[in-house]
Automatic annotation (TrEMBL):
One of its GO terms (molecular function) is UDP-N,N'-diacetylbacillosamine 2-epimerase activity. The keyword Hydrolase applies. InterPro entries: UDP-GlcNAc_Epase, UDP_GlcNAc_Epimerase_2_dom, WecB-like. Its EC number is 3.2.1.184. It comes from bioreactor metagenome. One of its GO terms (biological process) is UDP-N-acetylglucosamine metabolic process. Residues 1-224 form the UDP-N-acetylglucosamine 2-epimerase domain. Gene3D superfamilies: Glycogen Phosphorylase B (3.40.50.2000). Keywords: Glycosidase, Hydrolase. The keyword Hydrolase applies. This is GDP/UDP-N,N'-diacetylbacillosamine 2-epimerase (Hydrolyzing). It is an enzyme of class 3 (hydrolase). Pfam families: Epimerase_2 (PF02350).
């Protein structure tokens, strides 16, 4: 339906072209999430530590876990295993609530129950972008199934444990450990991500796949050079050979 496309990475640009879009209409401009990081005025470490009552360092685990649309019947099983794995880890967890999709309230209730009996679990309904990124910048590992773990975490050079299928098919950097829903798989993946060796690997070898944070500038540049009129309104289907 769109006349101009601004995907965040080249492989997604290729996907749009393969659907028959004219190449001149598709521009890889990077993901705006990276630009948001570069524009963020990070909250000072001492302010965050005062709010949460813990030291926020590379031992802290930041987690967001959302429901998966086509896996509603498996949600109790998934949460049982996730909480079982978390229960074996003594590190402090800062956890944001899931989204409001179907199943989100179930996840929230399970996390609330778990937090009541685990003093190392700090559950927050909504951190907001600035606070979330400030914690991500300071923490040791990001876990769950949020897209921020795929886009923002690599740019900040943070190890990630991507749980389950919610992000399946998306481009992933080499800082990401993907695991299934078994408790042992989740636990082993988190322990690997927390290791000094893996953190050093991510710090030295991971690069952002979603641009360098100049998305707005690139979009403006394109729009300034696009001629409005019949050419942009009349679309053609282009057959591309893979």
């Amino acid at each position: 339906m769109s006349h101009i496309h601004f995907p965040g990475v080249e492989i997604y640009a290729d996907n749009i072209r393969q659907m028959g879009e004219e190449p001149w209409r598709v521009f890889n401009v990077g993901d705006p999430g990276i630009e948001n990081i570069k524009l963020t005025n990070f909250i000072p470490k001492d302010e965050l530590e005062k709010e949460f009552g813990i030291e926020i360092n590379e031992d802290v685990i930041l987690m967001t876990y959302h429901p998966v649309t086509l896996e509603q019947e498996k949600l109790p099983y998934q949460m049982d295993n996730l909480l079982k794995a978390m229960g074996k880890i003594n590190n402090n967890f800062i956890i944001t609530y899931p989204n409001s999709d179907n199943g989100g309230s179930y996840i929230a209730n399970r996390l609330e129950e778990f937090a009541q009996s685990h003093k190392n679990v700090h559950l927050v309904k909504n951190l907001g972008s600035r606070k979330y990124l400030s914690i991500m910048k300071l923490c040791g590992v990001v876990i769950g199934n949020s897209s921020s773990a795929l886009v923002e975490a690599p740019f900040l050079k943070k190890p990630v444990v991507n749980i389950g299928n919610r992000q399946k098919g998306r481009l992933m950097a080499n800082n990401i450990i993907s695991c299934g829903y078994e408790a042992n798989d989740i636990y082993d993946s988190i322990k690997k991500a927390l290791s000094v060796e893996y953190k050093d690997f991510v710090r030295t070898k991971t690069v952002s796949l979603y641009g360098e944070g100049n998305t707005s500038e690139e979009i403006v540049k394109v729009l300034k050079n696009i001629e409005l009129g019949e050419t942009i309104l009349k679309k053609k289907f282009i057959l591309h050979n893979k």
